[in-house]
Amino acid sequence: MNAHTPITDSFLDVRNLTVSYPMGRGLSVKAVTDLSFTVARGETLGLVGESGCGKSSAARAIMQLPRPSGGHVRLAGTDLTALRGSQLQRARRQFQMVFQDPMASLNPRHSVRQILSAPLEIAGLRETRAAREQRIIDILDRVGLNGAQSIDRKPYEFSGGQCQRISIARALILRPDLLVCDESVSALDVSVQAQILNLLQEIRQEFGLTMLFISHDLSVVRHVSDRVAVMYLGALCELADTDAIYARPAHPYTRALISAVPQPNPDIAPAPLQMVPGELPSPMNPPSGCRFRTRCPSASEKCAAKVPVFRQIAPGQSVACHHPLTAPV
Ligand SMILES: Nc1ncnc2c1ncn2[C@@H]1O[C@H](COP(=O)(O)OP(=O)(O)OP(=O)(O)O)[C@@H](O)[C@H]1O
Ligand code: SF4
Ligand SMILES: [Mg+2]
User: Fold this and answer.
1) What is the average per-residue pLDDT within 141-152?
2) N or C, where is the chain less crowded by C-beta within 10 Å?
3) Given ligand 2 and candidates 231, 255, 295, 303, which is best to mutate, with the most ligand atoms within 8 Å of its CB?
4) What was the pLDDT predicted at 7?
C-alpha cells in the first residue's frame, strides 16, 4: 500500500496498553505504559524504537500472548482482552504473528506438514485429509516454496529465508486479517531480507492484510509503512504519516533516530539501535516528566516536572513533547 491507498476505518484499536513484568520482592518493570494507537483496515503501521523500549512486549500483549497487564485491544470492534477460553481461541484465527528467528520459532522435530497443520487443528477446521494437504501445499506454493516437495521436510533442511517463508505460511494458513511482524526480517541477510519484504508486500495486497510491522531498521520501516509509531522506554512519543515523520520529525528522539540511520550499504546489515547518544534509563525507574529528558538536547525545567501529553500538532502527526521541533499548525 502507498500514500494513495484509501484508509477507511479503525480496525485495530489499542487503548492504554500496559505490560508489567513482576521482578520479585514486590517490584515490577513496566515494559509498556499507556500505549494507545489505531491501525486502519489494510494499513501497515511501523513500530520503531531502541532495543528494550517495549516493542515485542506490546506486540505480544496485542496478540494476548500473554494478556496485557492493563488496557484494551479491539480488533474489528471485538475487545480481545475481554474474550475467554474458546472465544479467544476462535478469535485467534484473525490475528497472527511472524517472529524474528525463523529457526527458533519452528519445531525442529516436526515436518512442514505438522507445522502447518497445527493452526488448522487448533482452529478445529473440519476438512478431509486431502483438502488439508492441498491447503498446505497451496500456501507453501504461495510463499515461494514448492509445496509438494517441501511438505515432508523438516526445518533444518531449509535456509533461514526459506524457514521464514514457512513461518509466513503458518501465519497465513487461516487467512488472518491482522499480521504482526516482530523483526521478521532482522535475522536475515540483506538480499534475503529484500525477498521476504517483497513477499510480505505481495501477500498484504492479496490477502488484504492489516499489518503492525516492528523493526529497529528505520529504512525497512520507511519502505513498508503507511504510518510510523516511535516508542521510547515503553511509551509512545510520536506517530505520523511515513513521509511526514521522516521529512519533519517533531520529537527530538525521532529526529535522533532518523539522523542516526546509516547510508544504505547492501553489504552491511544494519546494527541494532543504540545510536542515540546517552544511556537508556532503566524502565524500572524512568525519569520524571518526559522520559526522554535525560538524553534530550531541548530539555527544559518543564520537561522534568510535567509528563508531555500526546497530541496532534499537524494533520497526520501527533507527538508527546513540550517543545516539538515542528510548530503546531
Ligand atoms: N519476560 C520478561 N521478564 C522481565 N522483563 C522483560 C521480559 N521481557 C522483556 N522484558 C523487559 O521489558 C523491556 C522491554 O523489552 P522488549 O523485549 O519488549 O523490548 P524490544 O523493544 O522488543 O527490544 P528489542 O529491540 O531488543 O527486541 C526491557 O527492559 C526488557 O528487559
Ligand atoms: S518534552 Fe522536553 S525532554 Fe521531552 S522530548 Fe520534548 S523537549 Fe525533550
Ligand atoms: Mg523485540
Assistant:
1) 96
2) C
3) 303
4) 44
